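Worked example 4.2. Below are the chains of a multi-component assembly; read each line carefully before continuing.
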Amino acid sequence: MFASPNAVIIAMTEADQATHDNHAPFLAHHFDSPRQQFAAGKLGMWLFLLTEILLFGGLFCAYSVYRANHPEMFQDGHLFLDRYLGAVNTCVLIFSSLTMALAVSAAQTDRRRLLVGSLIVTLLCGVGFMGVKFVEYKAKWDHGLVPGQERIAWFVALGWLRKDSPAPERGYQPDADYVRKHLAEHGEEVDDAEATRRAAGLFPFFGCYFGMTALHGLHVLAGMGAITWVLVRSIKGHFGPLYFGPVDFVGLYWHLVDLIWIYLFPLLYLIH
Amino acid sequence: MIARRSRGRGRCRRVAPAMRERNSAACGDCEYQAARSSRRKKEMSEHSHDKHDSSASAHYAHVVPLPVLLAVFIALMLLTFLTVAATWFDLGRWNVWIALIIATIKAALVVLYFMHLRYDHPFNAVVFLSALLTLLLFIALALLDSTTYQPDIRALQETMRNAGS
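Applying the procedure described above to all two chains together yields the following structure tokens:
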């Protein structure tokens, strides 16, 4: 438990040398060396990623159960998603993962211009991803496919201030006519009664779709915030071979967000 | 610890020479040693070598070489194309498994190279794999009863197919 006085003195001397002679201003006083600080931070980051995997895991569980028990709803549902937009977004995220990995290498090897450039490109990819996501969400909203859409609209429009406009009924009823036309485009002619039934059946699919992609989208936004923080610090010249932990840890987070999308893309867009 | 260190060094040797130089720049102790005054340099370098061998403080970060990053990126793009192309063929119940296998290969590439797990401390891999195993357990238990309803589901799909055609 208690180190010998000699060991303490040696540890203190090392820390002292590391901070003063070695110009490592970001070495926290409770760490012996930059290496120890980095290893501790990295372990902490992996533990955090573990909780993230299990957070998304709950949604993947729900997805698995619904898809196993209602495969026909998922077969219908994916027809309402544009797989090419999904593919484009996959490529954007993979490219941003590459530039993030480049940023980490650049910080480790003290190339500040490459570091700042890579981080900016990564950030722009995040903006691009969210832009495509916005276009997709907008189309779903316009077609009335968002679960609870009317209630959401009622709340957004400050409906609770207008006492004379009651909250809309609960329920999920996309426009049956739109569903019928859309199924016809994919080579399946159905009558109105069947279209109504199939429209109601889209609920579990779009519940999963919006639950999973919205949580993922929030993670992209959080990642963009973290990248902005690292970008500001790298412009200030904080990072180098002895201190690049924050770049590496934000990179890990960003790659995990990419990793989750790698599964979301085939599970939501590529059902057949 | 010793095994890990020697593995790490073995990998470093495979890195391109220019990158290896940078790699050593990423080593805290070498930098520390370089920062010494020339008068004390020799003495410190000996000290540093001792430290390398006694306390496993080899390179505290592994720089993944650029060609490796680019190769991983190209592989991920090709696999993305492959998973989209796989939907042009109907392989019945294998569709979902092929999509999941391709996604898992992509995920493994991201984790091993972009996230450095291949070069990382093994304990971080234990943390990551324990999350995956727990997740598998969750999903497997949640799906326990799904086979119960498969005959009904197949009958329903048959009805729908007949109604559609």
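Take a moment to check your reading of the output against the notes. Residues 1-58 of chain B have pLDDT under 50 and may be disordered. The helical segments of chain B are 2-14, 17-25, 28-34, 38-55, 66-85, 94-114, 122-142, 150-164.
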